[in-house]
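Give me the fold.
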Amino acid sequence: MADSQQIQPYTPIQPKPAIVQHVTNTSTPNITIHATPGMDKQAVAKAVTRELENQQRQQASRQNAQLYDGID
């Protein structure tokens, strides 16, 4: 006796593609310091470095806050 039903081929469920964000920071700060007589060059350099690092941390924090893996 022949069976009249055909078996359909298996079709696997396709996962949703991941959303990938690539962020490239291309900004280059231009810093001009007009030194006055008696200014400590090392202190100014440290202050500028500290501020640049602070801005980089803040930017990284904003970018990390936008990350989302799509899982609820």
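The CA atoms of residues 35 and 41 lie 8 Å apart.
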